[in-house]
Amino acid sequence: MIRRKQRPHASSRPGPTAPAPAIPLSDPNAGPSGDPTIGNLVKDATAQASTLFRGEIALAKAELTREAKKAGAGTGLLIAAGVMLLYTSLFFFIFLGALLMIWLPGWAAFGIVFLLLLIITLAAAVIGYLVFRRMRAPSKTIDSVSALRDVIPGQPALDDGGARHPQLPPVRGL
């Protein structure tokens, strides 16, 4: 079966098929006296502020995405360097044990290296524990959130140490 070439219809011809929107000859926000109304001015101001705010958010998101990619690449390289340092330290400690074998028997040389590593590990663990022990609660944030209770209307205040939440039972003694 041979198909014939169909003639183009009016809808397939190039060019506008629907009437183009007309350009208004007067301000659409203008009231009967020709001046824009307060409502239209407020509506336009809020729309423009919203557009500006969305634009700023989009700009910040684009900048932060670019910087986050750089930070991710830098973090990956630092992790790779740390892993390589860890592998390299193995050879250093073997070298240290072999060096001590010049003056001591092999078991004593590598025993000293083992004890040295154990002391370094324990010192790092104790220092890390002390750092975590010295950490304090975020007092400024707690004060700020506590101050919000006074600002937000309709929120019950805390009394006698109990926290109120609409879905949780009160907590006492914290």
Automatic annotation (TrEMBL):
<feature type="transmembrane region" description="Helical">
    <location>
        <begin position="109"/>
        <end position="132"/>
    </location>
</feature>
<keyword id="KW-0472">Membrane</keyword>
<feature type="region of interest" description="Disordered">
    <location>
        <begin position="1"/>
        <end position="30"/>
    </location>
</feature>
<protein>
    <recommendedName>
        <fullName>Phage holin family protein</fullName>
    </recommendedName>
</protein>
<keyword id="KW-1133">Transmembrane helix</keyword>
<dbReference type="Pfam" id="PF07332">
    <property type="entry name" value="Phage_holin_3_6"/>
</dbReference>
<dbReference type="InterPro" id="IPR009937">
    <property type="entry name" value="Phage_holin_3_6"/>
</dbReference>
<feature type="transmembrane region" description="Helical">
    <location>
        <begin position="76"/>
        <end position="103"/>
    </location>
</feature>
<feature type="compositionally biased region" description="Basic residues">
    <location>
        <begin position="1"/>
        <end position="10"/>
    </location>
</feature>
<keyword id="KW-0812">Transmembrane</keyword>
